[in-house]
Design brief:
The chain has 234 residues and is an alpha/beta fold. The protein has helices spanning 12-22, 35-45, 61-68, 88-96, 109-116, 217-228, and strands at residues 3-8, 27-32, 49-53, 79-83, 101-104, 130-140, 143-152, 156-160, 170-176, 183-194, 207-213. It has 2 domains: 3-116, Rossmann fold (3-Layer(aba) Sandwich); 130-228, predicted glycosyltransferase like domains (Thrombin, subunit H, Beta Barrel), CATH 2.40.10. It has 6 helices and 11 strands. Strands 6-7-8-11-10-9 form a 6-stranded antiparallel beta barrel. The protein has a 5-stranded parallel beta sheet with strand order 2-1-3-4-5, with helices on both faces. β3 (49-53), α3 (61-68) and β4 (79-83) form a beta-alpha-beta unit. The longest helix has 12 residues, at 217-228. The chain is elongated, with a radius of gyration of 19 Å.
């Protein structure tokens, strides 16, 4: 076991995002929705690292760091502050009060796992990738475009599409998983783009490499089981 991670954020989306990044590792993941709850959870589970949102009700990031100093069981537990709103003055204050480092939102899976691995020995399971040919709709609410999913792994997929979003953009994806009765509706982040005159992967058509965001346990198992049944993928 690589260790224990405590994710603390009052926005459920970011908790699910962090969990989705860690679900292919051998870490134990715990969550809390505010600083006070985080103190209770940390004392109980003794995490190896805490990812803590700065702006939270009841107890913000700075107040959490100050309270943690007085609690022997977790006094030395590394804390990584995660926020969109930390300026240089506040960053220095947080570091002076015990934060190990600051990670700015939005963050990528690569950035998140790179930081986590400084405090843990993460063994990330290799992503098996399978070839598919699945029609899909992508976009936001009623503004949906049609594309085709050409390959898929536990972490994401490639979507052949005419309408390209920017790297880092989020979108909703709807599709029927082949050979199942599972109609999936999931959020994704654009990880990379294949443009007509600027291809990152020459053997791929125009489209986007998407990574899954905030998958629930049931959806994770559905996708994982689908991938497992198609072990001839590359």
């Amino acid at each position: 076991m690589a260790g224990k991670v405590l994710l603390v954020d009052d926005v459920k989306f970011f908790l699910e995002l962090g969990k989705s990044y860690l679900y292919r590792t051998d870490c134990e993941v715990y969550t809390a929705s505010n600083g006070k709850e985080a103190i209770d959870v940390a004392k109980k589970v003794l995490p190896n690292v805490i990812f803590l949102d700065y702006e939270m009700p009841e107890m913000n990031g700075l107040e959490f760091l100050q309270a943690k100093k007085e609690i022997g069981e977790i006094r030395d537990t590394p804390v990584v502050i995660v926020s969109s709103f930390v300026d240089k003055k506040l960053e220095n204050m947080l570091l002076e009060n015990g934060a190990k480092e600051i990670v700015k939102k939005p963050f990528t899976e690569e950035t998140f796992l790179s930081v986590a691995n400084r405090y843990l020995n993460i063994d990330k399971r290799k992503k098996k990738r399978v070839i598919v040919d699945v029609p899909a709709f992508y976009g936001f609410e009623d503004d949906m475009e049609k594309g085709v999913i050409l390959d898929m792994s536990e972490g994401g997929l490639f979507l052949a599409a005419d309408r390209l979003l920017k790297e880092g953009a989020y979108l909703e994806l709807k599709f029927l998983l082949p050979d199942t009765n599972n109609s999936l509706k999931i959020w994704c982040r654009v990880a990379w783009i294949n443009k007509e005159n600027s291809k990152k992967k020459e053997n791929y058509p125009i489209g986007m490499g998407l990574e899954f965001v905030g998958l629930g346990k049931e959806t994770i198992e559905i996708i994982r089981n689908f991938i497992a049944r198609h072990t001839d993928g590359y």
